[in-house]
Design brief:
Length: 327
């Protein structure tokens, strides 16, 4: 429980840090865009607004996800965070990428006269410093949880969207700032304001890519993903170690929240085990499992003959007969 609380506090720090940075940056970008007429700077302003809204939605989702289980939701409200993470991905795509691409196209079709880029460079430099600070916090906190896994593997296996969403957003923001700076410079260097519009479109395409990646990861969590393979292996090992267990047929898990796992275990008990002894054994196994994996919120252990478990999961022909050729 203490570990889960610590993780939630760290997530809040990451989200609040990103929110504070984006609010300040957004105001500065809009002021600079109004003074210079830069399309890419206006796009970056909308980018910051969308990011700020996303952090608010994730904080809201985290608060809602902490509600205790009740009769209507016996496994709790943890997946509400996954729902809002999916909404964030949609907003990035629809508003962030959509507005950026539209603004870039409009600026190419009707380019505005160039003005001094100095204010843009100042705002971009400040924005890069603030976004870099937020990105550093997100990277540091995510590094603590990924262990020895590669970055992409850790993101794909992560069950907590708050951390990797901020990481994606801040990475996209830093890339957008670099592109905006290059677009503004090139527009003045070649005396062609349409280049600034092209930079805006490039920023929009980056946001669209990030939105698609986030939507894919969030969708998997929302539908229901299994626990980490190491967790499943630990559960199987603990159950199989009991002398009265002939075999562990299967271990099925699903995340009800980042720190809440439901597990269903099918095990073949020795025929000599009585009902009373079986109940005592199951209680002992549940206690041992919760001690080894504190995130197990619900444990269901079903005594089942191995041959029956195999028949239950084996593909069947249209006539209902098992497909014996299936490996």
């Amino acid at each position: 429980m203490a570990t889960s609380l610590t993780a939630r506090i760290k997530d809040d720090i990451v989200l609040y840090g990103a929110l504070a940075a984006n609010l300040g940056i957004g105001v500065a970008k809009f002021v600079a865009a109004g003074m210079t007429g830069s399309s890419s700077m206006l796009t970056e302003g909308f980018h910051s607004v969308v990011d700020s809204g996303n952090q608010v939605l994730l904080l809201y989702g985290q608060r809602k996800a902490k509600r205790p289980a009740d009769e209507a939701h016996p496994f709790g409200y943890g997946r509400e965070l996954y729902f809002w993470a999916f909404v964030v991905a949609i907003l990035i795509f629809a508003i962030g990428a959509g507005v950026s691409i539209y603004e870039g196209w409009r600026h190419i079709q009707d380019p505005e006269p160039l003005t001094s880029p100095t204010i843009n460079y100042i705002v971009l430099a400040i924005s890069f410093a603030l976004e870099g600070s937020s990105w550093t916090i997100a990277v540091r906190e995510f590094s603590k949880t990924k262990g020895d896994m590669g970055w992409w593997s850790a993101i794909h296996r992560s069950k907590d969207p708050a951390g990797f969403i901020v990481l994606f957003e801040d990475s996209a923001a830093l890339a957008g700032l670099v592109i905006a700076g290059m677009g503004i410079w090139a527009s003045h260097a070649f005396n062609d304001p349409r280049i600034d519009g092209a930079a805006s479109i490039a920023i929009g395409l980056i946001l669209a890519l990030v939105a698609v990646l986030l939507a894919r990861e969030s969708k998997g969590l929302l539908i229901g993903e299994r626990a980490d393979p190491a967790v499943i292996a630990t559960i199987q090992k603990i159950v199989a170690a009991h002398p009265a267990i002939v075999s562990v047929n299967h271990v099925r898990t699903v995340h009800a929240a980042p720190d809440s796992i439901f597990v269903a275990i099918s095990a073949d008990f020795d025929d000599a085990v009585t009902m009373s002894d079986g109940e005592t054994m199951i209680e002992a196994m549940e206690t041992e499992l919760r001690a080894a994996v504190p995130t197990l919120s619900s444990i269901y252990i079903r005594p089942e003959k191995r041959e029956n478990a195999v028949l239950a999961i084996e593909p069947r022909h249209d006539d209902g007969a098992p497909n014996r050729n299936h490996a």
